[in-house]
Fold this sequence. Notes:
The complex is a heterodimer.
Chain A: H1 13-23, E1 25-29, H2 30-37, H3 41-53, E2 57-64, E3 67-74, H4 76-98
Antiparallel strand pairs in A: 1-3, 2-3
Chain B: H1 6-24, H2 31-50, H3 53-74, E1 84-86, H4 88-91, H5 95-119, H6 125-152
Helix pairs in contact in B: 2-3, 2-6, 5-6
Amino acid sequence: MTEPLFDELIHPSTRLSLMATLTAADWAEFGYLKEQLGLSDSALSKQLATLEEAGYVTTERRLSGTRRKVRARLTDTGRTAFQGHIAALQEIIAEAAGRPDGS
Amino acid sequence: MDGIAAEEARTALDAADRARRQVEQEIGLPRGYWWAMAGGWLLLGVLGSEAPRWAAGMATVVFGAAHTTLAARLLDGRRRTGRLQVSRSVAGHRVPLIVVGMLVVLVGATILAALVLDADGAGHAAIWAAVLVAAVVGFGGPEILRVLRRWARA
């Protein structure tokens, strides 16, 4: 059972989607993430750098033919943080459902 | 908790769920697998009809061995493209069973088609049956697998 732990760093929608995508994959290429999230190169780089600084994501540069491609993957710390954040969101909803006004 | 309203939490969970479902869409086998399978099907059909029995038998064994080698790496459905690798927990373990089941049914369909064509007096019935099923595999393999996965909820 994952302990609910709200994470301010993950919560913004772009980073949440990025983390959710990486949770469902062993790794994903920069191009794929950019397309799925509808971000520019610089915006995605910035989000990845933020998550990498927090130790949630690692990136590696690989040579594919003549082009360099960036792969991102979630770290164990990132996976735990994401699961904790999801559990915290579920807890918020469950608590609200228990309140008379439902908010 | 942290001043987050339930509605906002629900929206965030929906976004996370949507991202996961997008990754699920990537489960499948590479396009090249289906074309290689179609090519093999055609070759076996021609050999089965035109070549000596031993040659057809050898070709079937080689085809089966090659498929087994490929299958070990690809059949889990996690490497459809080179752009991401779907995690084992998302891909599940039923995709290989579905692909193998699909191939067994297609072998049955090839035999049935050959028998029907032969009974109808068509020349080279086995080859035409193989052409028909190879076309189905090559053009429709990914879509058939997608539908079967949905049916099997895999």
